[in-house]
Amino acid sequence: MTPGGGIAVLGLLVLQLVLLLLLPPPVAAGAAERRCFCQVTGHLDDCTCDVETIDAFNNYKFFPRLNALLESDYFRYYKVNLKKPCPFWNDNSHCGIRDCAVQPCPSDEVPDGIRSGSYKYSEEANNLAEECEEAERLGAVDGSLSEETQQAVLQWTRHDDSSDSFCEADDIYSPDAEYVDLLLNPERYTGYKGPDAWKIWNSIYEENCFKPQNVRRPLASGRGDDGGHTFYKWLKGVCVEKRAFYRLISGLHASINIHLSARYLLQDTWSEKKWGPNVTEFQQRFDEVITRGEGPRRLKNLYFLYLIELRALSKVLPFFERPAFQLYTGNQSHDAEMKNRLLEILHLAKSFPLHFDENSFFAGNKKEAAKLKEEFRLHFKNISKIMDCVGCFKCRLWGKLQTQGLGTALKILFSENLIEKIPESGPSYGFQLTRQEIVALFNAFGRISTSVRELENFRNILRDMQ
What we know:
The protein is mostly helical.
């Protein structure tokens, strides 16, 4: 071997040694699971409930029933305006990725069961819907409904509740508002990320979560990151309402990230698209080491969000129990069956043994409590407006629905006195929910319930990793 050849071999060996030193240590079987879930156990802060109780209740009792209800005609159609301009900045650019696109099915491909206005799906109609989705392949937003369907849906009552609303609701009578079939447009990974997506969440956290500008969030870009010590010291010192507000937003963010990791685009070829769980993506967002301890906190905030929305469902039962209330779609027998299922789910929610106690909110001086509640409401309403700045239309759809659903849950929790006064018969003037709020409320909790269920799947996958 020549001297030059020996030096080259030695250099290659040194390079390989350096690369080995830079690689993370091998993860033992079960260690990957512990790094994501070891701290996601036991009691939750500001609550009497624990993670294990929620897992058992949701995964084996609540999730299957709610998931079946959300497949019904009443809950699968959500009217939304995806064309509203962003009210906060002039960047009206939209995501150019195919999976973000709005590509409605042509009206002649909408199933006959919908176009007839009967809201009853036949097997043939379902087959047509599947063919339509396959033709679009991307599962893009389906905003086409027939004239008959639109006229029937107009019979659902409209209620102006701007004074007690936590969301900036869309004008469903706007020419730009369209009905979307949520089953044909599932929430999943679209490729929307980078500076545009970061700008949305940064605006939410930095400008709407009551946080002082000089307190940096954990993992925020730039200098001065102290591992979250200053941030969590501040969070622990604020009132329970402001702490809850941050945890709700963090929990919603975590839930969305779980959906994107659980329905990730694993394969994209000319013949098919394959969606499924992406463990690496999940670890990047929730692994304790990779996120420097933030991942488990995010997951605990998801459980906190679950408790808040579950409590709202348990409190709103009297509104839906009234004989006059119907899940109207135009099919009387089907509507009656769906209402029975809905009431079963609400009674199940009420039976949960460790509900969150919302009476700790706004419980101090009445004047100060009213002022704080109004701040709370306006901050959340502002977040709902930010959803119109999301550049990915499918992400915008689900962002708007989930913020409206959480806003409706908050409206219910803070309207307890009005709900208690609802008469068994006749109109409910003091407290009212629009069809949009009802659809958003249950679909939003469906997303949270799905996230908790997906955690069990990721836990099993990580447990089996070698």
